[in-house]
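Entry: Sugar phosphate isomerase/epimerase
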Amino acid sequence: MSPVPQPPVSPLSRIRVGSAPDSWGVWFPEDPLQVPWRRFLDEVARAGYEWIELGPYGYLPTDPRRLAEETARRGLKVSAGTVFTGLHRGPAVWEDTWRQVARVASLAQASGAGHLVVIPAFWRDDKTGEVLEDRELTAAQWHDLARQTERLAHEVRERYGLRVVVHPHADTHVAGEADVARLLDATDPDLVSLCLDTGHYAYCGGDSVKLIETYGDRVGYLHLKQVDPAVLARVRADDLPFGPAVARGVMCEPPTGVPALEPVLAAAQDLGVDLFAIVEQDMYPCPPERPLPVAARTRSFLRSCGA
């Protein structure tokens, strides 16, 4: 019997796939457990990616000319820079926050990127689990978070031409469905967009497809990763902080975890706008030989989805 012909995979023409230092186990500017930056650039290109993020400031070269030379000769382009902020702490933190943001935004702009990924501060230490502040924000802190995020987005757009996308993240005050809805409802859609990280959102109990369908006009960027449900259940039972959870393998290689990425990508494509979908395979720390095969298999999987 002849095999039944399969319909061709619809190309996700609006989705631009990339990867990031995070997928090579890079969380810090310098760390003996991380691969050197040249190896990351060599291997991310070998794995079949065209776009990258800057990662933690200082990991890749911070001289724009040198960075441009290193990326160009490997056929790579930069999609975004990333910053951590504690904007819920009020105007008193603005100056320190802006100094950190400006250096990353300046390098991102010089590298041709169009986005700045903004991650809220952790409420507990992501390694030790030490509680740094209350898990829940007060009404006043939510007000400060919304207003200062708008201010940051305005200043970054005006000075550097970058679009701010806020990244809900485990062990921060913007994590699950209720937090995301509250922030989006409290901020100007013209200024504040969302970086939907499928892994973090699932980690915190959210449904990525539902979020795209509900707040599609606010989704400006994607991070692709998956969660191992069995490991996540143990992480929740033990109330582990995010760092030890990653070391335990809570974030797993696609397509073995949740959420399924095919419907997420299809929902994103249906928005009718161009979106970056950057693979972030959290696995710090990891052996230096592990990232490349995982990254290559993930790129092949995403191609099979049409991306």
